[in-house]
């Protein structure tokens, strides 16, 4: 089919996909909610507040390059919510390239980002299309904070902390466990350096008297986005949820993965990791409550003779993700991205613009900036 709707949300039956549709409705953007099970997608969309006023269609589609290309033709932007992306992303990217669509997803998988950049970055750039994996709260809001810090000249090192209250969705949990079989990197003097899989950190929580436990969280996207940024040479990221008992459980399972699962053949690793993820989170979590589901993105930026610290307090990390995806699509319908090809949200749309969107919807406070020079 040739789409009469300019935006396609692929994987709309998931928690985050539903939120993307919700914000597309608020931005008055027509969209197609697509997935492999039409009935399931429709059931989820029926629960979106105000969906009766949205201009949308529900479409069932096979997960293949041919079927997705047919669906994407006539559209402009695809928001891909179907992860783990290293497993399911290539078909969607290939279909976007064939159909002439911008591509965005919410990944936290460094191996997928590196693969996307190497295989398709130049091809998307040649067509003036955006290839932007990893537009999501856990990465983009911290990237906004980092870019605010880098407005102070002479800083070349980023120390990033991302914390949130709540529990990962089913899809996020599957992705977390998929990451465990990949290599994770931080950036040191513009080179990727591998994290040990069992790395942990005791971190200070900005604005509180306590500390908490954090992890490299798969390395995150920040080392990749800033690798070719002439301002930055070093990037390390720590992240996780506030609840220490949850983080301790993740640490214990990570050690189990290292000793019991990684020695297995690759195919058996995937099965074992999926079962482990299902044991942690098999259902859709409740809708976020802004009084409970708070977020903190903190960036210490330093250089030989300067320092800056930026903290962004927010709420509802999945709502932030849904809004960032929807607004990015809304922007692309009106003007080209600032950078085509492989690019982050801030590189494509501007960090101050993205901050303004999050603030206008009541999802983050004004950043707290402290500069020492």
Can you offer a commentary on this structure?
The strands form four sheets. The chain has a seven-stranded parallel sheet, sandwiched between helices. A five-stranded mixed sheet has the order 12-7-13-14-16. Strands 8-9 form a two-stranded antiparallel ribbon. The chain is an alpha/beta fold. Helix 3 crosses helix 4 (about 85-100) and helix 4 (about 85-100) packs parallel to helix 5. The model has no long low-confidence stretch (mean pLDDT about 90). It is built from 13 helices and 16 strands. It has helices spanning about 15-25, 40-45, 65-70, 85-100, 110-125, 135-150, 170-180, 220-225, 245-260, 265-280, 315-330, 345-350, 350-360, and strands at about 5-10, 30-35, 55-60, 75-80, 100-105, 130, 155-165, 185-190, 190-195, 200-205, 210-215, 235-240, 295-305, 305-315, 340, 370. Strand 1, helix 1 and strand 2 form a beta-alpha-beta unit.
């Amino acid at each position: 089919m040739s789409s009469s709707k300019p935006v396609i949300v692929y994987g709309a039956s998931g928690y985050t996909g539903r939120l993307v549709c919700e914000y597309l409705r608020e931005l008055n953007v027509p969209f197609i909610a697509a997935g492999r099970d039409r009935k399931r997608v429709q059931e989820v969309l029926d629960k979106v507040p105000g969906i009766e006023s949205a201009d949308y269609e529900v479409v069932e589609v096979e997960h293949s390059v041919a079927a997705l290309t047919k669906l994407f033709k006539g559209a402009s932007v695809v928001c891909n919510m179907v992860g783990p992306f290293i497993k399911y992303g290539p078909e969607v990217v290939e279909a976007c390239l064939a159909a002439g669509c911008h591509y965005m997803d919410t990944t936290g998988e460094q191996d997928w980002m590196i693969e996307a950049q190497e295989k398709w970055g130049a091809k998307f750039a040649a067509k003036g299309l955006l290839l932007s994996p990893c537009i999501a709260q856990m990465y983009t809001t911290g990237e906004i904070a980092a870019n605010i810090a880098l407005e102070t000249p002479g800083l070349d090192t980023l120390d990033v902390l991302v914390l949130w209250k709540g529990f990962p969705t089913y899809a996020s949990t599957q992705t977390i466990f998929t990451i465990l079989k990949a290599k994770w990197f931080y950036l040191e003097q513009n080179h990727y350096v591998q994290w040990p899989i069992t790395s942990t950190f005791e971190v200070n929580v900005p604005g509180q008297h306590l500390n908490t436990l954090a992890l490299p969280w798969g390395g995150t996207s920040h080392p990749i986005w800033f690798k070719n940024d002439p301002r930055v040479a070093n990037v390390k990221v720590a992240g996780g949820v506030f609840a220490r008992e949850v983080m301790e459980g993740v640490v214990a399972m990570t050690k189990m993965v290292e000793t019991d699962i990684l020695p297995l053949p690759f195919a058996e690793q995937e099965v074992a990791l999926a079962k482990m993820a299902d044991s942690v989170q098999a259902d859709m979590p409740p809708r976020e409550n802004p009084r409970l589901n708070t977020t903190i993105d903190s960036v210490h930026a330093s250089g030989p003779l300067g320092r800056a610290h930026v903290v962004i307090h927010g709420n509802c990390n999945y709502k932030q993700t849904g809004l960032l995806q929807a607004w990015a699509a809304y922007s692309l319908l009106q003007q080209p991205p600032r950078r085509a090809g492989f690019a982050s949200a801030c590189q494509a749309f501007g960090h101050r613009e993205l901050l303004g969107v999050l603030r206008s919807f009541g999802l983050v406070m004004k950043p707290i900036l402290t500069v020492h020079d």
